[in-house]
Design goal:
heterodimer; A: about 550 residues; 4-stranded mixed β-sheet; globular; B: about 160 residues; alpha+beta
């Protein structure tokens, strides 16, 4: 009987979201609640000489206004702690919060923020990374010694946009099929990550094999092509970290034998609450409706480094499995005492029951065990677990040299993407007709949720490749709203996105699972660019591949 | 200036007193405390605030509430009492079309109108019919599947 891992169950909170009852932050209302509005800096780099708050404070509904002057010199930041909550003495980017207003209504707070007068002395700014390298570059952070070059682990899709096109370019010049060249060079099985990082499992070769067949790659020439269009397939591959640093979980059994799970992992729509609950179900052999998930709360939840780096399933998941296993152990101990037999002779039975191995008749409900624990013997059953990823990965000296604040990454996921792309010869417009995305997730805890992550990642990658562009006017973003910054609609994204789930189990992951939050986006822009190049014969080194850019490239190639 | 007017919201008559420049979205969320309709972009682009006004999907962030006087407002909170709405909710649940859920209320309202006009839509009609509602996390496929499933359920 399948109760947890691998079940296509709807998300725990799906019904609330469907009937409008789900409470997002902006939906909350509390007695006496005030609204806050931030005032952002008008300059990219400036000294704050003073504030005039009098007009704003006199406006209706305003309770208080805070500026950097009201805060002690505490600083914050994920790794380098260099940022004030509200700018103090100077601003270092356009839009940096310089004041916050608390007022009775949102409208009053916003209006008052606009009435604040800040006296700035503008300083020369740095708007391009290259400018920061110049000898005469203005100093933005005075305590420069704390700044070592730190490479962000994000930004993988930008890097792969270059490297995966390079691989295609090499395959073209060597006249080797892009799939073949990749197959010859990819990491396999026990190969380590760069820097010597341990790779727990690697399903990349399988991703490539499956997509080559699924997309009928070898027969691209027989794809029907409409008049005035060029049509080709493109491929790209990717790897990504999955989980790192510390997580914890607390699993409690209530008097009625149901379970409450508490972790610091936040479900932002990726489905972690459901996936983590499914892990509890698998260990304790109970259906999903016997498990509740407590909302994460820094007062009461165990530490979780962050809901980031595709680490929910991998990092929090491992703690959930261990904490649940602790609960299971206690249940079996109670049962062995009640049955008067050895612990090894008792077993969990599906549906929240315990029995004696080989004996069908005698069974105890979890509720009976839990009542005994609460009222008679042993105390309420609680399992907890915390861990930090500490396997040798990146060379510790190298970690220090490049400024990594921690020595080890967690697991690694792998992916391959193939796209079927059509380019309009007259307008340069690129249309993605079909896509295949294969991801090695170790083990799909909830296959439906994994597909949703893969499909969504594809759509985001497609937007990045074809339309999304931040347009700068000096330090100011010229297209900061959805009116000007276009994201793909249901009419732009192809319906035919085929998700392929590859399961190369990672021994460090819960039930072999790895993360799937970020990996899916990484190879998409490069795959689309490779298809566009195959179709047009033009290699593009800038995104997005908007019609004007593609058309200019084609015109330049023919003249 | 404060104005008093009557709205029928999910079947119940409500007398509303609100400033004349207040949007229907603000009245629904702040005064009536129906927070199902979401404020995404607040400029009519994302579709998260879509509600049904006399049967037509509209951006409630672009409507002045006082202008909707005497009209029928249907929000996501009222969909379970609506034949098409309830079928859509069931289908979204079944196909896994809900992720973060922020676009879901608007998607449901737009899909309801789509199925009213075209009870048996093609895939492309669904894709076009939902193209005014942005979703950033699903890739739309499961949402399209949900609308198709709902049309099949309703045809039975």
């Amino acid at each position: 009987m399948k109760l947890g891992i691998g079940l296509r169950v709807p998300r725990l909170e799906a019904e609330e979201k469907l009937n409008g009852r789900a409470q997002y932050i902006a939906d909350l209302s509390r007695p006496g609640m005030l609204y806050a509005a931030l005032l952002g800096s008008l300059h990219a780099h400036a000294k704050i000489k003073g504030y005039d708050l009098s007009a704003a404070l006199a406006m209706p509904g305003v309770h208080t206004i805070l500026t950097g002057a009201d805060f002690p010199d505490g600083r914050m930041g994920a790794f380098i702690k260099d940022e004030h909550a509200i700018a103090k003495d100077k601003v270092r980017y356009l839009g940096e919060p310089v004041a916050v207003v608390a007022a009775q209504t949102e409208y009053q707070a916003r209006a008052a923020a606009q009435a604040i007068v800040v006296d700035y002395e503008e300083l020369p700014a740095i708007l391009q990374p290259e400018d920061a390298l110049r000898a005469d570059a203005p100093i933005i952070h005075e305590d420069l010694d704390r700044y070592i070059k730190v490479f962000d682990t994000g930004g993988l899709l930008q890097m792969l946009f270059g490297s995966e096109q390079q691989i295609d370019e090499i395959s073209r010049r060597l006249s080797i099929d892009p799939f073949e060249l990749r197959r010859k060079n990819i990491m396999r099985d026990t190969d380590t990550w760069f820097g010597g990082g341990k790779v727990g499992s690697n399903g990349l070769a399988q991703c490539l094999d499956v997509l080559e067949t699924a997309s009928d790659w070898k027969h691209w020439a027989s794809l029907p092509t409409r008049r005035g269009k060029k049509r080709r397939l493109g491929v790209a591959i990717a790897g990504h970290i999955s989980g790192l640093l510390a997580s914890g979980a607390i699993v409690r059994m209530l008097e009625d034998g149901t379970i409450i799970l508490n972790t610091g992992a936040t479900d932002i729509g990726q489905g972690s609450d459901t996936a983590l609950a499914q892990m509890v179900c698998e260990v304790l052999q109970v259906p999903l409706d016997k498990v509740s998930v407590a909302s994460p709360d820094t007062d009461g939840s165990p530490y979780n480094w962050g809901t980031t780096a595709s680490r929910g399933t991998f990092s929090a998941g491992r703690s959930v499995v261990q904490a649940s296993t602790e609960v299971k152990k206690r249940i079996l101990e109670h049962a062995s005492e009640l049955f008067e037999c050895a612990v090894d002779d008792v077993e969990l039975r599906p549906g929240g029951k315990v029995g004696i191995k080989g004996v069908q008749q005698k069974e105890l409900e979890f509720s009976e065990i839990s009542r005994r624990a609460h009222w008679a013997k042993g105390g309420p059953i609680v399992g907890s677990h915390t861990w930090v990823y500490d396997q040798p990965t990146i060379d510790p000296k190298r970690a220090v040299a490049i400024g990594l604040p921690f020595p080890a990454y967690g697991g690694f996921t792998f992916a391959a993407v193939v796209v079927d792309v059509e380019v309009d010869e007259a307008t340069g417009q690129v249309k993605v007709l079909r896509a295949w995305s294969a991801i090695d997730v170790g083990k799909a805890v909830n296959p439906s949720a994994v597909e949703g992550q893969i499909e969504g990642a594809f759509a985001q990658g497609m937007g990045f490749a074809l339309a999304e562009e931040m347009v700068w006017d000096g330090a100011r973003l010229a297209n900061p709203t959805l009116m000007d910054y276009k994201v793909p609609t249901s009419w732009d994204v192809p319906y035919e996105i085929t998700s392929v789930v590859i399961e190369a189990a990672d021994p460090d992951g819960p039930f072999g699972a790895k993360g799937c939050g970020e990996i899916g986006i990484n190879a998409v822009p490069a795959a689309i660019a490779n298809a566009v190049t195959a179709a047009t014969g033009v290699r593009y080194d800038h995104l997005p591949l908007k019609p004007e850019r593609v058309l200019r490239g084609m015109l330049a190639a023919t003249s | 200036m404060s104005m008093t007017f009557v709205l029928t919201i999910n079947g119940s008559q409500r007398t509303i007193t609100a400033d004349g420049d207040k949007t229907l979205l603000s009245v629904l969320r702040d005064d009536v405390r129906l927070t199902g309709a979401k404020r995404g972009c607040n400029q009519g682009v994302c579709g998260a605030c879509t509600i049904s006004l006399d049967g037509m999907p509209v951006r409630s962030c672009l409507c002045l509430a006082a202008n909707c006087s005497e009209q029928d407002v249907l929000t996501v909170e009222g969909l379970q009492n609506d034949r098409i709405g309830a079928a859509l909710q069931g289908a979204f649940l079944k196909t896994g079309a809900v992720q973060c859920g922020f676009c879901t209320p608007g998607m449901l309202i737009s899909a309801r109108r789509l199925l009213t006009d075209q009870p048996q839509p093609t895939l492309d009609q669904i894709r076009l019919g939902l193209s005014g509602n942005l979703c950033r996390c699903s890739g739309y496929r499961k949402i399209v599947d949900a609308v198709r499933l709902a049309s099949e359920v309703l045809a039975k």
